[in-house]
Design goal:
13 helices, seven-stranded mixed sheet, alpha/beta, 26% helix, 25 strands, RNA-binding, disordered N terminus
Length: 566
RNA sequence: UGGGGCGUAGCCAAGUGGUAAGGCAGCGGCCUUUGGAGCCGCCACUCGUAGGUUCGAAUCCUGCCGCCCCAGCCA
């Protein structure tokens, strides 16, 4: 939609600084030198799990960079391991990318699209004497590989004739051999200091049904063999991957050079780490399988589907990707950065609404019985175009339990015996009495009087009062449930073998009996609101008409909580 | 003891030989009918460290230190 290289990053500054990072520098050089004429990237997920915020960084990088350079980005599923992959994942991945706002148009590909071509390429290598069929089993291959400090040893099958290799490879494909009995290996250098170059396996025998090719194949290409050649076939110019593949780059290059096919450039960047969560697919899977969370889209999960259900916006995630930048240094981003991106987006777009999570009844003694006033409330002070709405006010209200204290500390601006407070959009009230449950001693009801002259907007309403609190009319209020989410882990870095011990037992608090303003009865799944003074909430997909359920997306910044803490 | 990378503030991150951007967090203050939002100010005499080159070094050179990745028929 916009011109290139200058799309909004720091929206609040009104600036649109050009994004700079080492990848763009490389691209600039490549374009300038004529190495490539366009920018063509790809996002290559393996469909073996749900996408998470770390993938979002990569998606924004790949799609975003291509777009800024007026190039394109493919979506390619790296589906070379049928044992771990599933269509459930290919569907969720597409949904997540689309939701983020990126479009691969007609460029949806699968590594499995290229199985035949890859097989032909392998034959070429065999004919060049650059690949061979090995009869060593997995354990023997490991033993021949050597160690980090010692060179490996050649396989006794390394020098088979081209004819024999061709024959054996063909028969591997035909299914003549059992799983694990043979592999096709690149013939490179068993003494290379780079272990990836010690005759890496290109194909393994796997009699497994693939989610797309079914039983057509019983040999499957390894990542190193499939990935670069797939990039080449698609004409990818810049193949952006994470740091752990840096060691694989010589192999990546070796294959395309041996084949003399289009040569993409692999560039590695540091993967995203976030505090107070885990990011590895293995651990996320474990959280799901062991029921520590309700599923992949549990609002506490760092998955894209979890963030979506939690109430995150695509814009907030893209803003996050811009803010954290791209580099090669291992890093851990403080989750507050993500939360700030969210707040900054939601602040501008979420409708304000009043909701009382922990209600306590408040009776205005001098307010006429049966009277109802429709008061005008602003939908979003940050955006006048969002207009206003009417909310009912009456004699009996609910206010937040936290907004009253019998013995308030200093700097407590809310309601307490004898104190005045403003009811947002309504009147200034004074607390005249407290009714307690005779048995428990809990506060059952608060009594107040209102200053009839202080209706919102009137001159007398200008009077300074320390605090303003939110409320909801008891007879008009709608019941709701709030799911109050907190961070999944108690520690910034839940690492190590006992990472599950730092799971936060209070990461979900279900609050029932909330009272929300009547207009919310019509809220639809995924609608986002700011509950004034509390935080941003969205309607959960479990919500039903008559049984409203809200997820707390994120709290508002709360300086009182900060003062209180200490 | 092999190979590949990375070290700029509590956390990210610009910077590419001319005298340390920006964001988050934190801390002060202003303003406020959300203790929200907004606004203002503070927060690296120094860039892992020790030398060297230079009029001048985070940027160039050398040594040292620290951290990450690699020994799947996973990706």
């Amino acid at each position: 939609m916009e011109d290139n290289k200058s799309q909004g990053t720091e929206q609040e500054t009104g600036q649109t600084p050009e994004k700079r990072n080492f990848i763009r520098e490389i691209i600039d050089e490549d374009l300038k030198s004529g190495k490539y004429e366009t920018v063509h990237t790809r996002f290559p997920p393996e469909p073996n799990g749900y996408l998470h915020i770390g993938h979002a960084k990569s998606i924004c990088l790949n799609f975003g960079t291509a777009k800024d350079y007026k190039g394109v980005c493919n979506l390619r599923f790296d589906d070379t391991n049928p044992a771990k992959e599933d269509v459930e994942y290919v569907e969720s991945i597409q949904e997540d990318i689309t939701w983020l706002g990126f479009d691969w148009e007609n460029r949806l590909f699968y590594a499995s699209d290229y199985f035949e071509k890859l097989f032909e390429y392998a034959v070429i290598l065999i004919k060049k004497g650059k690949a061979y069929v090995d009869d060593l089993d997995a354990d023997e291959i490991r033993q021949h590989r050597g160690t980090l400090t010692e060179p490996g040893k050649d396989s006794p099958y390394r020098n088979r004739s081209v004819e024999e290799n061709l024959d054996l490879f063909e028969r591997m494909r035909k299914g003549e051999f059992p799983d694990g009995s043979k592999t096709l290996r690149a013939k490179i250098d068993m003494s290379s200091p780079n272990i990836n170059m010690r005759d890496p396996v290109m194909y393994r025998i796997l009699h497994a049904t693939h989610h797309r090719t079914g039983d057509k194949w019983c040999i499957y290409p390894m990542y190193d063999w499939a990935h670069g050649q797939s990039d080449s076939i698609e004409g990818i110019t810049h193949s952006i991957c994470t740091l752990e593949f840096e060691d694989h780059r010589p192999l990546y290059n070796w294959f395309v050079e041996q084949l003399q096919i289009f040569h993409p450039r692999q560039i590695e960047f540091a993967r995203l780490n976030l505090t107070y969560t885990v990011m590895s697919k293995r651990r996320l899977l474990q959280l799901v399988q062991e029921k520590h969370v309700s599923g992949w889209d549990d609002p506490r999960m760092p998955t894209i589907s979890g963030l979506r259900r939690r109430g995150y916006t695509p814009e907030s995630i893209k803003l996050f990707a811009d803010r954290i930048g791209v580099s090669k240094a291992d890093s851990v981003i403080d989750v507050s950065v993500l939360e700030d991106c969210l707040r900054s987006d939601l602040n501008k777009r979420a409708q304000r609404v009043m909701a009382v999570l922990h209600p306590v009844k408040l009776v205005i003694e001098n307010y006429p019985e049966g009277q109802v006033e429709e008061l005008e409330a602003v939908n979003n002070p940050e955006d006048e175009s969002m207009g206003t709405r009417k909310i009912p006010f009456s004699k009996v209200l609910y206010i937040e339990r936290d907004d009253f204290m019998e013995n308030p500390p200093k700097k407590y601006f809310r309601l307490s015996p004898g104190a005045e407070v403003r009811l947002r959009y309504a009147y200034i009230i004074k607390c005249t009495g407290v009714v307690k449950d005779p048995k428990t001693g809990d506060i059952a009801e608060l009594h107040c009087t209102y200053d009839t002259e202080t209706k919102s907007g009137s001159p007398a309403s200008q009077r300074k009062v320390k605090g303003t609190i939110h409320w909801v009319s008891a007879q008009h209020a709608v019941d709701a449930e709030a799911r109050v989410y907190d961070r999944l882990f108690n520690v910034p870095d839940p690492g190590g073998d006992n990472w599950k011990e730092s799971l936060n037992p209070a990461s979900l608090e279900v609050v029932k009996g909330c009272k929300v303003e009547p207009g919310l009865a019509a809220a639809k799944v995924q609608d986002r609101f700011q509950f004034e003074r509390l935080g941003y909430y969205c309607v959960d997909r479990d919500s039903q008409p008559g049984n409203l359920i809200f997820n707390r997306t994120v709290t508002l910044r709360d300086t009182w909580a900060k003062i209180n803490k200490g």
